[in-house]
Design a protein that fits this description.
rod-shaped; single chain; mainly alpha; 114 residues
Length: 114
């Protein structure tokens, strides 16, 4: 069978059988359905890590390294944008307030004249 998933238990059992020398490698491979390449890949992984299955960390995209300077720059950029927005909003409120004062003054002066 090509491209089928081989369980960790099956791989460990095959390694134990091979290490105990109870069965020949060819018999183990034919019975378990491993190719020679898969077998030696599993053996190499077993000897290097003690595991028979690679544990992969799911990562998507390109890893990027953030520097404190990058964080500082983005923080300053964000703050300057925020300050600019607040200043323009403040100017807008000031204009509205001054126009309301002008309207109120006008209405008060017209009331006094009558």
């Amino acid at each position: 069978m090509v491209y089928h998933k081989i369980s960790a238990n099956c791989k460990l059992a095959a390694i134990r059988l091979y290490n105990s020398r109870l069965l020949s490698l060819d018999f183990i491979l034919s019975y378990c359905g491993f190719s020679r390449r898969t077998w030696f890949r599993v053996i190499k992984l077993w000897q290097e890590t003690g595991h028979v299955i690679q544990h992969r960390v799911p990562q998507h995209g390109h890893l990027r390294i953030l520097d404190t300077e990058d964080i500082h720059t983005s923080y300053i950029s964000y703050n300057s944008t925020l300050i600019t927005s607040l200043m323009s909003f403040s100017n807008y409120l000031h204009k509205i307030n001054s126009s309301q004062c002008t309207i109120q003054q006008f209405s008060m002066s017209s009331n006094k004249q009558s």
